[in-house]
Amino acid sequence: MARDPIEQIDLHLLRIAFPSSPSLHLWVDPLRDACREFGIDTVREVASFLANIAVESRDLTRLEESFNYSPERLRALFGRHRISDEQCRRLGRRPGEKVVPIERQRQIANVLYGGKWGRENLGNVYPDDGWLFRGCGAKQLTGRANYEKCAKALGMKVEDLPAYMRTREGACRSAGWFWKSHNLDAKAATPGVRDDRIAINGGTNGLEVVEPRFNKLVKELLRRGC
Asked: Nearest-CA neighbor of 193 among 220, 221, 217?
């Protein structure tokens, strides 16, 4: 009888998925519980889920989006259709600064995730929504619309969700909710992880990391008899 992939989520497996993360033993139960709650329960689903949130959260070391970008990096990542050259220069990290001050990070978030693009793609309708509903949790859930749907599904008030997603339990459950609500089981059932990555990230950014980790995770789970 094949072993349950969820029960195989242990410290050794997490070291494959998140090689640079400290204190991985604290993540075993929250990840198992989230996979169980949201039906992430096949070899390919577990492997894709872990590999993708590894990239989204920088190996579970970043549960809140940072906007500590240089002007050049802002331009390269988001393009002129999202932020102008003038805004990049004015708001991005300046010579001698180690970190962009929080108030400027707030302005960057509201530029990137606000306006017409933010309304149409993220449901951000108020001036500070880009900052209030910035990426959070293991999936880096973003946007008022996603926050409201996730909060409802988890039985919470939307204003309580950001702090909850910064906990290990909340980080994993919100990622599990996103997986289930976007029918990622169907993506994981197809060959490769390119379509999984596009559904999760909106593009193929990070695929070069997700793909080899996914392959290693699948190999390890199959070796264990899953």
From this structure: 217
Series of mean pLDDT values for 10-residue runs along the chain (226 residues): 95 97 96 98 98 96 96 94 96 97 98 96 96 97 97 96 97 98 95 92 91 97 96
Backbone angles phi, psi at 64, to 5 degrees: -145, 130
Q: Cα(206)–Cα(185) distance, rounded to whole angstroms?
A: 20
What is the identity of the amino acid at 150? C
Helix axes 115-122, 144-154, angle to 10 degrees: 30
Tokens standing for residue 35 = 């996979």
pLDDT at 202: 85
Comparing CA positions, the residue from 55, 58, 43 lying closest to residue 215 is 43
Instruction: Quote the CA–CA distance of 133 and 128 in Å, as a whole number.
Output: 9
- Name the token pair of 208: 């070069």
Q: How far is the C-alpha of 191 from the C-alpha of 59, rounded, in Å?
A: 24
